[in-house]
Amino acid sequence: MKKIIKTSKAPNPIGPYNQAVLTGNMLYTSGQIAINPATNELEIENLEDETTLVMENLKAILTEAGMTFENVVKTSIFISDMNNFARINAIYGKYFDPETAPARETVEVANLPKFVNVEISAIGVK
């Protein structure tokens, strides 16, 4: 049985999907981009701020599901330019304890929704 996770503290989906799905003790988040949930506007002028907003959107979804970043076992990071890897990684790393950080992959892609610079999804376990 699956439970849909939805919070007003993260952006509404821009397509036919949900913010996250909880099935059993597993949480699967949709990829998050830098849409400010309060304004429904993109915030992509500064890469560090953009990445922070992406991580805060993920945090809001995790919180709604009764989890934290400590519950995350896997992330997927999609970036539009691998030259931005270090800057994105510096912000991403602030949200995880290096000793218990999740597995992940980082992939450069040709384009992302709304032509953002970074999109991140996560899988969590209670």
Automatic annotation (TrEMBL):
Signal peptide: none annotated. GO terms for molecular function: deaminase activity. It comes from the Bacteria. GO terms for cellular component: cytosol. Belongs to the RutC family. This is RidA family protein. It comes from Antarcticibacterium arcticum.
